[in-house]
Amino acid sequence: MHGMIDLLFMTPEFSERRLLLPRPENTVRLQLTIGCVKPKEFEKSLSLKGIMVDYSAKDLLKNKKFPVLMHEKDFEMIIADVAEMKIRSENPTTREIYNKANTYGWASLHESAPVHAALKYKEHLIGKDVHFATEQIDSSLGHPHILAIKTFNKVPYLTGVPAHPDKRWGPKDKFAFAIRKLSMI
Q1: pTM score, two decimals?
Q2: Does residue 2 have a pLDDT over 60?
Q3: What average pLDDT is seen over the chain?
Q4: What is the pLDDT of residues 113-133, one digit of tens each?
Q5: Nearest CA among 169, 136, 171, 132 for reference residue 148
């Protein structure tokens, strides 16, 4: 069967073994290295690459709780349409999307991953409008958001998107997740 993963995985957050579901067919996999960049430096780096940063993204990057990785981390990222994830609800919630991703062996990304992805894969992401599945970051008004890379007039920009657990998403919305490392048990 196409995309069937027949390995079991064990991660610290899961104390049980789980069989992974077949991976959706129309997904994009990308290698990414993140870390060692402070949020203050993100906006400057994006601007130098021709990537706009809107007000909502600036607001999230300025949040004192925005986490910084002190060491580099390599991982594989996957981008999938909500419809390809085969969630029963036509317009699933953020919670349903994250839960379904878990069944594929996908995990939340670090909050800085959208910036690093934009810098490395700018040309690939133009026109894709990708939402990055991270832990939600509170805006200055206290509302949970995630970062997304969208395109306006062929110019990519980083934006903050409301993402409370019950927010509904459309079938054409795209999400990026980290792929968990698999091991034989």
Answers
A1: 0.81
A2: no
A3: 81
A4: 898 888 888 888 877 899 999
A5: 132
Q: For the chain, how are helix, strand and coil distributed in percent, rounded to 5?
A: 25, 30, 45
With tokens 């290295």, the residue in question is 33
- Cα–Cα distance measured from residue 4 to residue 182, given in angstroms and rounded to the nearest whole number: 13
Distance CA 118, CA 133 (A): 14
In this structure, the chain runs to a length of 185
When pLDDT is averaged across residues 173-180 and rounded to a whole number, the result is: 91
Residue 154: pLDDT over 50: yes
**Residue 167, φ and ψ in degrees, nearest 5:** -65, 140
Largest Cα–Cα separation, the chain: 49
Nearest-angstrom CA–CA distance, 80 and 87:
12
Q: What was the pLDDT predicted at 131?
A: 93
Give CA–CA dist 119/9, Å, rounded.
Answer: 31
| CA pair distance 5, 19, nearest whole angstrom | 8
Query: What is the token pair recorded at 71?
Result: 């060491």
| Among 42, 56, 39, residue whose Cα is nearest residue 162 | 56
Residue-range domain boundaries for the chain: 27-177
The residues facing 84 across adjacent strands are: none
